[in-house]
Structure formats: structure tokens, C-alpha cells
Amino acid sequence: MAVKERLLENCIFQMNRRDLVAALLLGSAGFAANHFNLSLFFNVDFLFGSVFSMFALLRYGPASGLLAALIAASCTWLQWHHPWAIIIFSAEALVAGVLLYRHRIELITAVVLFWFTAGLLLVWLFYHQVMGFSGGATLLISLKQGINGIINTLLAEVLFLLSLRLKPTPGTLPSLQRWLQIILQGLVLVPAFVLAFADINWLFRQQMHRLQQDTARMAAVGTVMLDHLLTVEHRSDVPGHRVHGQAAADPAILKLMRGIINQRAVSLSLLDRQGRVLVTTSTERMPGQVFAFPADGRLEPVGGAVSHWIPDPKPGIGAMKRWLRSFYTTEVELAPETGLRLVVEASLAPSLQLINSRTSILLGVLALLTLLIIVLSRYFSRRLLAPITELGRATSQLPLKIAQGEQIGWRPAEVSEEQGLQDNFSQMEQALQQSFRELNAINEELEQRVAERTVELQDRERQLSYVLKATGEGIWDWYIDSGVVRHNRRWCEILQLDDALLEHPLELFAGYLHPEDRAGVMAAVQAALDGDGHYRSIHRMLSGSGVVVWVEDRGEVVERDAAGQPLRMAGSINDITARKYAETQLELKQQQLEELNRSLQQQVEQTVAELRTKDQVLISQGRQAAM
Q1: What's the count of helices (H) and strands (E) in the chain, helices before strands?
Q2: Same domain for 295 and 429
């Protein structure tokens, strides 16, 4: 059991009901924040749900942070259709919680360590190895998620520091150095992130607009050149302008179409009236087939006659990989008399690769800038707070220095404000030393007076002990509120009790009262408490050996509260067993004397009666003789 309790104490992943509720609420907020994401391009999104999970980690502990991260990250299944992001973001919260709470590493540093080590490895494993992303795309994802996680952690720390400011608790005040680090990091990273996002977004929109224009231009050029080839050069060969079979068999048309697209990632398909492919540059289509777009996607108009074919999302396939299959397409009709149509399909892959490359470079620079600003923010915050830190160190020695009469050694001031603080503290130090000297003088005088009073009190205490020893009285002191009674040793000696009972509850005293006297004694005590506070009783008590001891018990209420209720009662007891024995013997002797006296009186009365009778007989006889 002790081992189990020790393990529970060392476990950082513990959560009470309050932490659980907070984790669920913050996780739900993170889920909503992930849903309303900031899209860079084609499902390459910046998510802000981990702001709430990292806040939960800081405010409520690693268990709450991990649960909130798991709930918030589950939104990515709906957006990206694979579970790997959930694992990566949950691992981020887990590693950050362990580094923060067990190894005491700052959260922003812990997150940076994760994304440059374990996070990078997990992205490579899941995106490159499992889902088959290219190396460039995998690098882009790792940089994007790392920067996203660092920015979110920075925002979470701001929220946490603000929460401490709005609702401070003892021992949780944030340090000024941490505030300075967050401010310096935010002043650099947030504008850099905004500029990088704006630049990438502008490049994406520019590339998509250019691709749209190139697709429309490719269709226009192809229409003109194919119209010329089919309606002019083949006019004599194809009476009535029936060119379908000729077009399918003429290699010049395929050569022309390949010349139009050159090395571009574009395919041209020439269709007849029934929508069958006559000529195509695509390797995925065959002449004679009915032209149709892949069934696992949809067309969305993007402007003009150009549409965007987008593959449907599939579980386990990343969004970026899906977008590489998408293409812009447009369809134009050649000369009406031919009935032919030209379909242009322009792949987004080259544009996306260019955007990915540019994005990776910008995010890589932003990652290096992040590392640099974290190091510099720690350095500059420490340098800026050096005067305050030095002031705290010096003032912590102030009592000792003043007591020893020494001066505080200040470091050379670097700025005028620091010099002003040092001057002010030097003046305060001199004033305190002067006050300390005066206090020492007063203290010495007081110590002398205390020594004199101590000697006087010792003499009086000695006299009191002599008196108590001479009178043989036991002293008791009853604290009424707590029910505790304290005694001197004489009290225990009278009742033949151990010295361990020098302090005991009132019930123990009542237990040693003679059963015949207990009610009367307690009534007398209560009458004293309710009355004028004077108490006196002569009663019997049972000693530790069971012998009856007669005591004379006296007391008085010595302390009352503001309402007049008694708080403390003190008094003494005196062993009067010998006196009561003497009184009993004296009463016995008195009774014996009284009985003897009554017996003598009866004998005298009887003798007197007999003498009177004899006198009367003699008188009677004398009278008779005289007659």
C-alpha cells in the first residue's frame, strides 16, 4: 500500500473532477478552433485548437492538457481524413507535459524540443512512410505543424499569464522575466508569421490565377491552330468538311497538339460530336473512348469557362496528396461545321510544387528565426532584469549587513535608473542602520529591565512554591472552552496519580469524584460559572489506588470573554483527610462522653431518689417516735 501511494504521489497524470470538466470544456473549444482554421492553401491549414489544450496543460496539469489535446485533435479526422495528426498532436501535449512538470522545462522550450525531435520523426513516419508523401511535402508538413504548434503555445502562455493576472492565487504569480520573454517572442514571431502567411497566400492566389489564364490561353491557341489545320490544310482532302476520320488518322494533329503543350503538365483531347476521343496527348486516355472525367471527383467553376476538378477525400490519404491529382480544365468548340471540341486539362502539381518549395523555404526561415528569438529573448530578458535581480540579491542580505554594521556592495550601475535605485537603497540602508543602533540601545535597556524583573519573578515564584509546599495545596487551571484541566504535581500526589495526568480533560476529574458527592460537586461548579464565579466544596475523591481522599476544593473564574461568559477558572485543592479523620474521632469521643454523662446523671438521679426515699422514711419514723 505504501508503494502504491508513493507511485500515485509521483504520478503527474492525475486529474480530479474540476480538472476533468476543464479538460472537456477546453478540448471542445479547441475542437471548434480547429474547425474554423486558417487555410494556407488546399487543406494546408493552420489550426489553433492546441492553444486551448496547452492552456489546459498549464492551468490544470498534464492529464487535462493531454485529454484536451486529444479532443481538439479529433477534428483533424474530419478535415484531413487520417488519424495521424491526432497521434502527433496528442504526443506533443504528452511530451510537453512531462518536460514541463517532471523536468521543469519551460513550455515553449519543451514544444520546440518536441517539434525538432520527436515531432519531426512522427511526421516523417506517418506522412512519408505510411501515406507516401514526397520528401518535399513531408518537410513542408513538419515545418508547418512545428511553427503552428510554437505559435499556439505562445498564445496559450499569454492566456495563462492573463488568467493569473485576472485571478491571482498565492504562490502562482508569474515572473517579470517570463512576461518579457513572451512579449519579445510575440513581437517578432507573430508579425513574421503574418508576413509569411500573407506572402504564401499571395503566391498561391497568383499561381492559381496564372494557371487559370494559362488553361484558357491554351484552349484559345489550340482552337485557332487546330481550326487552321483541320479546315484549311485538310479542306481538299475531306469533302464536305468531314474531318473526323482524317483527324483520327492524321499524325500531324497529334504532333501539333504536343507542340502546343510543349513540356507543360497539360493534356489536350480532341473530341467528336458524340464525345469520343479522336486525338489526345494524355497517356490515360485512348482514341475511340468516350471522354469522361474520373468518377472519384467533382468539378467546381473557378472563373470564365475554366473549372477545377477536385478528387473526393478518402480515409488514410492526405489532403495535399489528393490535391496533387487535381487539375484545371476547360472545353471549347472548334469550327461549328466540324462539330469537334477541344478539352484542356492543366495539372496543379507543378504549381503546388512551386508553392510547396517557396512555403518550405519561408517556414524554414521562420523556424530558424523562432530558435533565434527564443534564445535572444531569454538573454535579453535576463539582461534587462539584471538590475532588479541584483537588487533582490542585495536586499536579501540587508538584515545581516545592518546587524553587522556593514555596507552592501553594489555592482557598477549600467543605466541611470539603476544608479538611482542604488542611491535610494543606500540612503535607506544608512537610515536603517541608525535605527538599528537606536533599537539596540533600547533593546539592551529592555534586556536589563527584563533581567531584573525575571529575578524578581523568580523570587516571587520561589516564595509561592514555598507557600504551596508549606500548605500542601494542589493547583488546578481549567480552560473551559477546550475542557482541558492542568495541574501541578502536588495535585497528582494528593490523588496518588501519575505525572502523565498533569493535563487531562474535565471528564477525568469528574470520574475521580466519589459517586455520592459527584452530583453535588458538579452542581457547585456550574453554580460558580453561572453566578459570581466563586467556588468552594468539601467532598470525597477516589485516589488512584481506590482509597477515599477528603479534599477542600476552591476556585474562581479568572477570565471571561466580551459577553461575560467564563473562559478560564483556577483554584486549589487541599488534602483534609487527616482533619476529617480527627473530626470523626473527636465526634466519636464526644458521643462517648455524652453517653457517659447521661449514665452518670441517671445514677445521680437514682441515688438522689433513693436518698430522698430514705430521708422520708427516717422523718416518718422520727415523727412517730416523737408522738
Answers
A1: 21, 14
A2: no
